[in-house]
Amino acid sequence: MSLRKKLVIAAAVVLVLSLSAYSTLAYLAAEETAHNVVTSGGVHITLLDKTRDGSAEGASLEELRDFTDAYPGGLAVLPGSEASKVVAVAKDAGSADCWVRVKLEQKVTTPEGEMDPAQYEEKISFNLGANWVPGEEGWYYYNKVLTGSDVTTNLLDGVTFKGPDMGNEFKNSTYSITVQAQAVQAVHNDAGANGVLDVKGWPQA
Questions:
Q1: Under a CB-based contact definition with an 8 Å cutoff, are residues 11 and 160 in contact?
Q2: CA geometry: angle at 191 spanning 85 and 187, to 5°?
Q3: What digits encode the pLDDT tens for the residues 191-203?
Q4: Number of domains in the chain
Q5: Phi, psi of 73 (to 5 degrees)
Q6: 199 lies in some domain
Q7: Does residue 197 lie within any of the structural domains?
Q8: Helix, coil or strand: residue 67
Q9: Is residue 202 domain-resident?
Q10: How many angstroms from the chain centroid is the CA of residue 123?
Q11: Is residue 90 domain-resident?
């Protein structure tokens, strides 16, 4: 099932990695975990979840393969490499002009429970794009209003795994990135002195 789904206000996808200390092999899969539809203000966006792997050279963002179409059974990744995971947001035709924000949350769960972020934050990292302003609680705000059929620049452009740093503490663990996108109408909702961070009316997560 394609991850290019129509969203109104919010959506989420998850990227899941199973890590094996014995083979030092990560297993990357993607599955939909939530699809929240809220009707408000005529705002309609699409969360794009793509991969460059297997895509034509020079393909545009929307021409890239959907991640789950490219890897329905998951993708084997060696720690020390970069996994191609491209995330952006498109404004749908007919939608009101809007501001967009995206929240990234990562988590490692071992058989003993959730791992302290301090143990992996320097070992597994997001490859983040331009035109996004970091805010509070893991939110990144796109610093331009989406008009027409605009698409944001890529927020997430891949995930890097620092293989030499990933030891036995990752044995039988699961790594996940949750991506949630929200949009709010731009009319009478200008950016203030702090830019897009002053935009109001974001829906509750």
A1: no
A2: 95
A3: 877 889 999 888 7
A4: 1
A5: -105, 5
A6: no
A7: no
A8: helix
A9: no
A10: 18
A11: yes
